[in-house]
Amino acid sequence: MMTDLSNKNILITGGTGTFGEALLREILQQNIHPKHLFILSRDEYKQHQLKQSLPPHQQSLVTFLLGDVRDYNTLMIHFRQMDLVIHAAALKRIDSGEEQPDAFVETNTVGTTHVLNAALMQHVEQVVTISTDKAVYPTTLYGATKLCAERITIQKNKPAGLRASVIRLGNLLGSRGSIVTELIESNQTDIKLTHPDMTRFTMTTSESARYTLQVLGEARGGEIFVPKMPVYRLVDLVSVLLPDAALQYTQPRFTEKLHETLLSHEEARYTFERAQDYVICMKEDLQQWYQQQPTHAVPASFEYHSNQHNFLSRDELRLLINPFI
């Protein structure tokens, strides 16, 4: 079943975050014509800033709702008459998650349960949960909470009712708290890295928003969608952003990975490759449907991690980063 996004009430949790804002702007710019857009977030000031940044003809298409995914009753109120929910609300700073695990579990895991349960109760047609490569082989509390959020989303999918899917992304270039923004703001002359070969997946926020809209139109429910993403080496990123900085190598933190993984070896047996992405299907009926589509099953030994691929050159990185400098 394909989703026509026109004439739909669409709600974005975490809608004032980097991804949520990018998705809102992409919807407003494309010829989608939703009935109405709703932004749900906790921060009144960020809502005001985002609203004021929109031209008047777009402001009338968006309603800003104050609320917290930890509050189930609030979600029950706001999800009335909603057709689609994009669940992007999350706490994501790695260090904060290790220091304040309760808050991360309540927001990222329990909050996702609340979103899915409220969507079921209010007869929402579709929910897409935004996840992260940190959920694969998690070494951080943040990653563990997002793994739980993925499993909760897939478990709540109901073939005859709510269609629930996951989009698993890598690092969003220029997002708040990302290494790009932190390096730019620090302007340090001495940069500490833990390994010269460290790699990361990356994607611009506008690319992630366009991909999400594509998935909203294609998802049957029960899938984890993994876009094919460029990869960079952190040492190249530092060289582009701070060419005069001196690099110092330190011991890695126990939560830190040398490379990230977007699709695990264990998931390969359930995975189909398309031109632009991979689709993980854990249910047999879903696998049978994708077998009839223009896809092919990946090898059983397949794994999609960031040290397998051609890295972005420094010139390519510079082109990507220029809008944020």
Automatic annotation (TrEMBL):
Occurrences of domain Polysaccharide biosynthesis protein CapD-like (ranges): 10-277
First and last residue of the signal peptide: none
InterPro entries: NAD(P)-bd_dom_sf (IPR036291), Polysac_CapD-like (IPR003869), Polysaccharide_Synthase-Rel (IPR051203)
Family named by the database record: Belongs to the polysaccharide synthase family.
Name under which the protein is recorded: SDR family NAD(P)-dependent oxidoreductase
